[in-house]
């Protein structure tokens, strides 16, 4: 192993260790946001599916995806609608079909639970020295770029025909 590879391995281990320490310190504030939401785990899962789909979903499709009866899924969706997390509407292509979409409130709630990062809050970032803030911005941008490249590569691979 050359010096650059050795340094990369040491830095990678250090970053993992630092993230473990961060995760331990941020669990209490994260749990408070999780506990404040009045949704069941299954409702959160369905909401996650709705948030990740611009086209929304049908009750039948969700029931099949989650392996539950249509009656169970309909009741779950009723509760999400009653809480303002989802809304039902007609399918644009086929007016006989009802589609369910996440509302802005549903998207905000899920985003707050999943992407809540108190360690990157303004109150923390404002206390960092400028040089550290610049380095953090550069590192986060690099991670975003690698993940973006992976997503693009995966999407390209999915659209290739088997003979390519």
UniProtKB/TrEMBL annotation:
Residue ranges of every copy of the HTH marR-type domain listed in the record: 8-145
Database matches in PROSITE patterns: HTH_MARR_2
Cleavable signal peptide: none
InterPro entries assigned to the protein according to its UniProt record, in alphabetical order: HTH_MarR-typ, MarR/SlyA-like, WH-like_DNA-bd_sf, WH_DNA-bd_sf
SMART domains in the cross-refs: HTH_MARR
Protein name: HTH marR-type domain-containing protein
Listed Pfam families: MarR_2
Species of provenance: Gryllotalpicola daejeonensis
């Amino acid at each position: 192993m050359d010096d650059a590879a050795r340094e990369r391995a040491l830095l990678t281990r250090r970053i993992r260790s630092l993230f473990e320490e961060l995760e331990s310190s941020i669990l209490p504030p994260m749990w408070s946001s999780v506990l404040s939401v009045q949704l069941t785990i299954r409702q959160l899962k369905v909401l996650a599916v709705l948030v990740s789909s611009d086209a929304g979903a049908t009750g039948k499709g969700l029931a099949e995806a989650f392996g539950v009866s249509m009656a169970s899924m309909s009741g779950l969706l009723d509760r999400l609608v009653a809480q303002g997390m989802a809304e039902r509407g007609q399918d644009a292509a086929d007016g006989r079909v009802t589609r369910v979409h996440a509302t802005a409130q549903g998207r905000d709630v899920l985003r707050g639970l999943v992407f809540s990062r108190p360690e990157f809050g303004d109150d923390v970032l404002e206390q960092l020295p400028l040089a550290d803030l610049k380095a953090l911005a550069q590192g986060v941008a690099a991670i975003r770029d690698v993940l973006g490249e992976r997503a693009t590569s995966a999407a390209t691979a999915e659209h290739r025909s088997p003979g390519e």
